[in-house]
Design brief:
Structural class: alpha+beta
Helix content: 10-25%
Mean pLDDT: 82
Radius of gyration: 28 Å
Number of helices: 8
Oligomer: single chain
Largest sheet: 5 strands, mixed
Order of helices and strands: HHEEEHEEHHHEEHEEEEEEEEEHEEE
Number of strands: 19
Length: about 375
C-alpha cells in the first residue's frame, strides 16, 4: 500500500528520508525505513531473455590492479571481485557482477583520466534462457526500451491511473539514487540491491538480475548488477573477449584512444595477441581524379588510362603502383567507431581513402583530363590481432 497522496507529498517524504538515512550504514535498517516510508512497490520484476534468436552482449570495465599481470589468462580475473568494498549495488564482501549493455557507457562510468589503461571484457548472455530481473527503469528518465515498457505496462495494468502515476513517480525518486556520480548514496542503493539480489533468496525468490539506469550522461543505456550464481553458470553467461586499451568516450559518444592488445577465449584460457595493421587491397578500377581537391572529381579505371611523366608513357595503374603504392605503409590511427572491436573477432577490414598529389611534370594522355593533379584511391586496411 502506498503511503503518500501526491507528488508533493512524495517529495517531502523523500527529502526527509534522505536526511534520516545520511549516517545509517546498516542495510537492514535502511531498507526497513525505505519500505516503511514508501511501501514495497519501488522495484518490480520482469522477464528477461528467451528470444532464442540471438544472445545479449554486455560489457564490463576492469582497472589494473596489483597482481593482475600474473593472471591475465584467467577469465575470473575480469569477473566480479569476490571481496568488494561497498559499491553502488553491493554491500562490502557481497559481490555482484557489474556490466552495461554499452561498452561506451561502461568506459565512461569508470574512466578517470585519458591515459588510464583499462581492460574491457565482453560477455554473452544466452538468448535462449528466460530469467527474471528486477528493473528500476521508469518514465521520467529520457530512455525508451522494451524493459521499461514492460515494467510500466505492468504498473498500469495493476493500479488505477492516478495511483500508477504516483507509483512511477516514487519509483523514479528511488531509481535516481543509482545515477549519482560518486558514493554519496551508496548506503541506500546498496541496501536496496542487496535486498533484491540476496535477502529475498532466503524466501525462496531467486531473481539474479537488477537493471538500473546508467550514471553516464553521454548514454541512454542501462546497467546490470548480477548475482554470482547467474555469472558462474556457463549455460547462462560466458566470457567472449577482453581488450587492453586506453580508450575514452568523447562528448559525441565516440571512442578515442589506442587498443594495446586483445584476448580471446581458447580452451577456457585467454590468449593475448597484439594489434597489427596492413594494406590488403587497392581499388584501381574506381579511382577518382581532379584538377583541384575541391573541384568535381571524375571516376575512372586506372588500368585503362595512359599518363606521361618526363616524356615516358605509363599505364596509370602501373605508374601509381611504382611511384606511390609499392613502398606504402599504413601508420594512421584506426577509426575504432567503424567496427565492433569488442567482439570475438581477431581480424577487421577498414576502408580508407588515399589522396595522391601528382608531380608537376605528370600529365594524362588525354586533352580532356590534361590538367588533373589529384587522385583518390580507395584502399582496404586489415586490422589483425596476432
Amino acid at each position: 500500500m502506498m503511503k503518500f497522496r501526491s507528488k508533493q507529498h512524495c517529495d517531502e517524504l523523500f527529502a526527509n528520508l534522505l536526511i534520516e538515512l545520511e549516517n545509517v550504514n546498516d542495510h537492514i535498517a535502511t531498507f526497513t525505513m525505505i519500505s516503511g516510508t514508501f511501501g514495497d512497490h519501488f522495484a518490480l520484476s520482469t522477464s528477461f531473455g528467451g528470444s532464442g534468436k540471438e544472445d545479449f552482449l554486455v560489457y564490463r570495465v576492469s582497472r589494473q590492479y596489483l597482481g593482475l599481470e600474473e593472471k591475465l589468462d584467467d577469465p575470473a580475473s575480469f569477473s566480479y571481485n569476490p571481496h568488494p568494498n561497498l559499491g553502488r549495488a553491493n554491500l562490502k564482501n557481497k559481490p555482484v557482477f557489474y556490466c552495461s549493455f554499452s561498452a561506451r557507457t561502461a568506459i565512461d562510468e569508470v574512466k578517470e583520466n585519458k591515459d588510464e589503461v583499462l581492460y574491457i571484457s565482453t560477455w554473452k548472455i544466452n538468448g535462449k534462457i528466460v530469467t527474471d530481473a528486477f528493473s528500476l527503469l521508469y518514465d521520467s528518465v529520457d530512455r525508451t526500451d522494451f524493459l521499461r515498457e514492460k515494467v510500466n505496462q505492468r504498473i498500469e495494468n495493476e493500479f488505477p491511473k492516478k495511483q500508477a502515476d504516483l507509483l512511477k513517480y516514487m519509483q523514479q525518486k528511488i531509481t535516481d539514487l543509482f545515477t549519482y556520480k560518486g558514493d554519496k548514496y551508496y548506503n541506500i542503493s546498496s541496501a536496496i540491491a542487496h535486498k533484491l539480489l540476496y535477502n529475498i533468496r532466503e524466501q525462496g525468490i531467486a531473481i539474479p538480475l537488477l537493471i538500473y539506469p546508467s550514471v553516464s550522461k553521454k548514454s541512454i543505456e542501462y546497467n546490470f548488477a548480477m548475482h554470482p550464481s547467474f555469472v558462474n553458470d556457463p549455460n547462462c553467461f560466458r566470457l567472449v573477449s577482453v581488450i587492453k586499451c586506453n580508450l575514452a568516450v568523447s562528448e559525441e559518444n565516440k571512442l578515442a584512444g589506442d587498443i594495446l592488445s586483445k584476448a580471446v577465449l581458447r580452451n577456457k584460457k585467454l590468449k593475448w595477441v597484439n594489434i597489427h595493421t596492413k594494406i590488403k587491397e587497392f581499388d584501381f578500377q574506381n579511382i577518382k581524379l581532379s584538377s583541384d581537391k575541391d573541384d568535381n572529381w571524375i571516376q575512372v579505371d586506372a588500368g585503362k588510362i595512359k599518363v606521361q611523366f618526363n616524356k615516358t608513357e605509363y599505364c596509370l595503374k602501373d605508374y601509381l603502383s611504382t611511384n606511390y603504392i609499392d613502398n606504402l605503409t599504413f601508420d594512421e590511427n584506426i577509426d575504432l567507431n567503424e567496427f565492433d572491436i569488442f567482439d570475438s573477432s581477431t581480424e577487421y577490414i577498414q576502408k580508407r581513402n588515399l589522396i595522391i598529389e601528382f608531380d608537376s611534370n605528370f600529365r594524362i594522355m588525354n586533352n580532356e583530363y590534361n590538367h588533373l593533379k589529384y587522385a583518390i584511391l580507395n584502399i582496404l586496411i586489415g586490422i589483425e590481432f596476432k
